[in-house]
Amino acid sequence: MAKQRIVVGLSGGVDSAVTAHLLKQQGHEVVGIFMKNWEDDDDSEYCSSNIDFIDAASVADVLGIEIEHVNFAADYKDRVFAEFLREYQAGRTPNPDVLCNAEIKFKAFLDHAMRLGAEKIATGHYARVRLNEGAQRHELLKGLDPAKDQSYFLHRLNQAQLSKTLFPVGELHKTEVRRIADEIGLPNAKKKDSTGICFIGERPFREFLNRYISKEPGPIKDERGRTLGEHQGLSFYTLGQRQGLGIGGVKARGAQRGAGDHSPWFVARKEMATNTLWVVQGHDHPWLLSAELEADDVSWTAGEAPAPGAYGAKSRYRQVDAPCILSAGAGAAFRLSFANAQWAVTPGQSAVLYDGEVCLGGGVIASATPAA
Q1: Where is this region: Interaction with target base in tRNA (predicted)?
Q2: Catalytic residue status for 100
Q3: How far is CA 97 from the centre of its chain?
Q4: Phi-psi bin for 313: left (phi > 0), alpha (psi -120 to 50), beta?
Q5: Which backbone phi and psi does 318 adopt, to 5 degrees?
Q6: Among 74-83, 226-235, 308-317, which stretch is predicted with the lowest mean pLDDT?
Q7: Average per-residue pLDDT in the chain?
Q8: What letter would DSSP give residue 310?
């Protein structure tokens, strides 16, 4: 690749640090940008942006590159967080990382980098971009480390974004990334990976949502309509959830389908009209299994839908690609029919389609059809 001016999103983590190092090693002019995207509780124990910036600045110092601190908090609140809250209030479970990548890291950040004269941007995501010369388009590929692949979160990227983006660590396994960081003396070589909401960090989730969404308690019922307890508000629960239901001691007399008296309870349905949380016993209860799903708010990396037919799909992150048949839904929506019923398919989450290692794009799950 010809030498280019590349702006790297330095998060303070090891992946973006090694990304900057690899590009500098290749002879590119590398500039670091630290994105600050959350300001509501900067002084709280959960907001790590100040620590992260110190780590990012230390990395820039070791690598000998410039770093700029950029504040996208207003963009984040308008484009990502407002939608995040709307989805929760509607009883769905959104994926903020997907929206954050589409709206902040590969829009606001990309636009800013281009204003700085960048020819490309780079991030520490575990994914790859390949130019398919025959089809004359860029393809989004899975990262080579199957345990770290993040293409699921990047599936909304379009041709313009992919053509300007590099993912150097997508070619590596995490163990190799840490080894490189250690070898060149990066100060964050052993820093643990971040989890939690994109840019907001790790914090007690229900307590956090409480500040933005009002509680509306209602009944928790089982499949026979018996009231087992009271929920704190449907927004605070997600399908397949097992912890935090407050009904662990309840026995189900004559429990069916192999679920014993002490089998765990799982959230199976959220009924907004009656404010009822429905729970079932047993991980493989039919209410938790879906044969089909329909997704809308569709985004395809190629700019057009793939041909109907057989593919693999993930209806949640860290899931093995499930064999499925893609067909057109109503309007711009699409439908996936699975060979094997999928567990806890959750409205608001993303259904992402794959053709082998190529991530084709996807949509937001609107509904699921029970397997039985």
Answers
A1: 95-97
A2: yes
A3: 4
A4: beta
A5: 60, 40
A6: 74-83
A7: 89
A8: E
Report the distance separating Cα 64 and Cα 58, nearest Å: 10
- Give the amino acid at 159: Q
Identify which of 56, 20, 19 has the alpha carbon closest to the alpha carbon of residue 36.
56
Q: Compute φ and ψ for 220, nearest 5 degrees.
A: -105, 120
CB-CB contact of 336 with 325 (8 Å): yes
| Residues near 141 by beta carbon (within 8 Å), at least 6 away in sequence | 127, 128, 129, 130, 151, 170, 357, 358, 359
Query: Is 359 noted as a catalytic residue in this protein?
Result: no
CB 85 within 8 A of CB 215: no
Burial of 14 (0-12, 13-18, 19+ CB in 10 A): buried
CA separation, residue 195 to residues 85, 201, 300 (Å): 19, 7, 27
Q: Among the options 47, 198, 324, 359, which is catalytic?
A: 198
Residue among 142, 104, 145 nearest 18 (CA): 145
47, 100, 324, 359: the catalytic one is 100
Question: Is 154:170 a contact under the CB 8 Å cutoff?
Answer: no
Which residue(s) pair with 131 in the sheet?
Answer: 138
Q: Which residues are annotated as a binding site for ATP?
A: 9-16, 35, 124
The string of pLDDT tens digits covering residues 202-256 is 555 677 788 888 889 999 999 999 999 999 999 989 999 998 898 865 554 444 4
In DSSP terms, 363 is beta-bridged to 351
Domains within the chain, CATH numbers bracketed: 5-205 (3.40.50.620), 217-283 (2.30.30.280), 288-370 (2.40.30.10)
Tokens linked to 175: 């163990």
Q: What is the pTM of this model?
A: 0.90
Which residues line the annotated binding site? 9-16, 35, 124
Strands 276-281 and 265-271: antiparallel
Question: At CA 15, angle to CA 13 and CA 20, rounded to 5?
Answer: 100
Share in percent of the chain as helix, strand, coil (round to 5): 25, 30, 40
